[in-house]
């Protein structure tokens, strides 16, 4: 059987399996504890699970590893990358091997699974994306691709955000899909909040950056002498970054000036041999099949709100956090404007355009080349179309949230 038809058959099996799981799940998300009456049916249930996996689960591990490696090596971009995801959707054994074969974006430069959006980008070649703004619905969609003109229908939706104005602040709710921005949905991944003037922003992540924070926060929510109830997932927001725009009321200091303090990334991440936090799975039981990287429809999860569920204190990193600053533009005498070298990725002058580099202290062991390396750049290429290129140590989610801050109104900064 040719490899292409083989992968197509795997994809159809994975789709049927996910539909079967949807029908079987119903509305109950939490199963009761096993009792003596149900112990007799445990053996039949396990045998049923084995039957549902089908003959594909019985392939020799060596053959299965070779197949998945060939599929992963052949498909290097979307929509062909969907075949890799289909392999992970067949059964547990296929998923385990697929997750072992597929590397993180830092090492392979590809976005495959939803968790890839929370992992650092590649160190050398940046991942090129673009953002489409919809003024009528106040939504912003992040796509993978060079531009809408070049990518067209081949563009892959990565993240979406909706702007929600309040009396004293503005929220950008970020989701994995483009039609569900509810904080109680399993597609919710975080938010960006601004102050009244639009000069200070806070980035909140629905996932804690490390497992120790999960343990401490779960213990803080536990009340003594409380009645035993079925567990429910509590939605939390963890502050991972702060963005500050310098005031420029008199408009005498040129373009916008911004600083980003990445609370979840240590400053040593950009030093030689340094590493950035890399989550390998969602810790809040997020169903990854709800992401546009896998399917188009999401599933709901039970969420319990409490007074402490809106802003969890984040355990600070061991060393000084990474600080990013915008690269200073130069004044062009002939054009009579401020200019930056975007290497052809930005074509329209805009106050929103920026490039971020690391703000390095003299005590840090960072080379001059690393200090000049652009970690994130954002700029306009057309009406409501903007490019976004990011690299290590930022993730797609972090880069998207920083770029969203540029869309908010800043009367005191420009």
Condensed summary:
With 414 residues, the protein is an alpha+beta fold. It folds into two domains: 1-20 and 50-102, no CATH class; 127-216 and 233-405, Alpha-Beta Barrel (Tubby Protein, Chain A). It contains eleven helices and 16 strands.
Secondary structural class:
alpha+beta
Could you name the CATH topology of the largest domain?
Tubby Protein, Chain A
Number of domains: 2
**Terminus-to-terminus distance:** 62 Å
Tell how many strands the DSSP assignment holds: 16
Radius of gyration: 23 Å
Largest beta-sheet details? 12 strands, antiparallel, barrel
CATH class call of the largest domain: Alpha Beta
Q: What's the helix-strand series?
A: HHHHHHHEEHEEEEHEEEEEEEEHEEH
Unreliable sequence segments: 20-51, 211-234, 294-314
Count of DSSP-assigned helices: 11
CATH superfamily of the largest domain: Tubby Protein, Chain A
